[in-house]
Amino acid sequence: MIFTIAARELRGLFLSPLAWTLLAVMQGLLAWIFIILVGDFQGLQGRLAGLENAPGVTDRVAAPLFRVAAWGLLLVTPLLTMRLFSEERRTGTLDLLLSAPVGISTIVFGKYLGVLLFLLTLVALVALMPLTLAAGAALDFGKLAAGVLDLSLLAASFAAAGLYLSALTTQPAVAAAATFGLLLAFWIVDAVGVSQGAISPLFAYLSLPRHGDALLLGLFRSQDLAYYLLFSAAFLGLTIRRLDYARLRG
Amino acid sequence: MLGENAMTGEIVLRVEELSHRYGENRGVDAVSFTLSRGQVLGFLGPNGAGKSTTLRMLAGVLAPDAGRIIINGADLLDQPQRAKQAIGYLPEQPPLYRELTVDEQLHYSARLHRLDRAASRQAMTRGKERCGLMEVSRRLIGNLSKGYRQRVGIAQAMLHDPPVLILDEPTVGLDPIQGREIRDLIRELGQDRGVILSTHLLAEVQTTCNQVQIMQSGRLVYNGALADLHQQQHQSSRLRIGLNAPPPATELARLPAVMRVEDLGGGQFRLHHAVGAAPHQALIKHAQAGGWDLWEMTPEAAGLEQICIELMLGQEAVA
């Protein structure tokens, strides 16, 4: 049942020009940055060759590319998630799901899975670019995988937050703006906690990109994984609660 | 799913003391009724009387504050999946995705109602044939006319062959011919299942339904067979009279069996009296004695519309 809902969601996304446009813009911009990064790396190669334990092509090309892609996800996700529930509530199609023999959590997970699959497609397309370097360079596949995992976890977190905010309103634009604001707040929250050069551990922990940085360096820490999973689970839980409440109050 | 021995008369929906409040407002207040196979129940009432709210609760879209809903033997609260499987719901606004084709929409809905691939293909063909959608199978719902969208909505509601169909104002916005087609379809569907049809058109109830239920500010004010309501309209309960020299209305009110006097102006009055006890004898006698100069006396039969309006206004004219 989850897959039926996810499949329709994905189909709806691919039937809209918005999704294709976002894919194209992301891919185009990232490809441009990728070429610049590759060019820079080639210029540096001579000097790097003399160094002991020099950063490789994965560190110099893939990691910065993924860092930019993370910013891209921050901009793109609100536009993809804004319609998930708000549109269904506005046009009344949510009634079809609510009157069908399907639980509310199934509906929420189905929609989440649908949009997540789309975002993972986007991540896969980004990952393809550094992968092409494997033809002529020695890639660190472990680091590359860690980078892809980082982007995927970020996408999962962003999508969960977007899903929740789209359940709060019937106006997609409001949902998009709120999602963007919320994600940006989590992105820069570590800057708030700085006093006398030291960062408050709480705000540092809340900050989204801080958990990704370790992964981009190829450092897999379970606390980072837990952070992303908790972030996603919290917003999914809130979404279910929100829909339950809407069913009570009409 | 319809069993082999789906007989008419079997109760498929039981509603007990259903209530829902919107803040301070009373949305629906202690509504109880039952629906059997073979019944097409017309749900009448002015806008805002709580019809849609009631139907939304029956469909499981809105949770009731109090009361029980039992659909085909399953309690909507305890066994929501089983109960919802037995219900087909068409809300006021058909829940259709504009970007899907008719086939895609119906397939999605069939899958949501747990039909497997083969069963859903079969159900789709049957639904499209019944609702006259064969020629628009591959068209986008966003490009269909309102009449066709309504039909897709009905096809979607009956796809999984539920014993209970709930249709919220299915003919609003249709032209007369489309409206008649939909009504014919509903009558046909009502032969072997229970159908609830909400509307504010009395004519629609008269042509389509065999049961009537009237709601007024959240309460059920009438529930019975259409035939009973028809019977009432032939029993006169009013007398219109014209007098050239009328006495004060209070004097008319003292006539035997008269319950209420309505002054229509120009010496005309409407006397409301108990059914079957017209005060014409007494009136003639008094008119002669008092020199009222009676020039008109016409019994007025309340039309079905009048009866319904009076029920909605909460008067006891048809008691």
Account of the 3D structure:
Chain B: GO terms for molecular function: ATP binding; ATP hydrolysis activity. Chain B: Belongs to the ABC transporter superfamily. Chain B: InterPro entries: AAA+_ATPase (IPR003593), ABC_transporter-like_ATP-bd (IPR003439), P-loop_NTPase (IPR027417). Chain B: It holds the Pfam family ABC_tran. The complex is a heterodimer of chains A (250) and B (319). Chain A is mainly α. Helix content of chain A is 82%, strand content 2%. Chain A has one domain (2-249). A two-stranded antiparallel ribbon of chain A has the order 1-2. Chain A is globular and about 70 Å long. Chain B is an alpha/beta fold. Chain B folds into 2 domains: 11-225, P-loop containing nucleotide triphosphate hydrolases (Rossmann fold); 237-301, Alpha-Beta Plaits (2-Layer Sandwich), CATH 3.30.70. Chain B is built from 11 helices and 14 strands. Chain B has helices at residues 51-58, 80-85, 102-112, 117-130, 146-158, 176-189, 202-208, 226-234, 249-253, 280-290, 304-313, and strands spanning 11-22, 25-36, 40-44, 66-71, 74-75, 87-90, 164-168, 194-198, 211-216, 219-225, 238-243, 258-265, 268-273, 294-300. Chain B has a 6-stranded mixed beta sheet with strand order 6-7-8-3-9-10, with helices on both faces. In chain B, strands 2-1-4-5 form a 4-stranded antiparallel beta sheet. In chain B, strand 9 (211-216) and strand 10 form a beta hairpin. In chain B, helix 4 (117-130) crosses helix 5 (146-158). Chain B starts with 10 loop residues before the first strand and ends in a 6-residue tail after the last helix. The model of chain B is unreliable at 1-6 and 315-319 (pLDDT under 50). The chains are: A mainly alpha (250), B alpha/beta (319). The A-B interface holds A 1, 4-5, 8, 11-12, 15-16, 91-103, 247-250 and B 20, 22, 27, 53, 56, 59-63, 80-82, 84-85, 87, 89, 91-100, 104, 108-109, 111-114, 156.
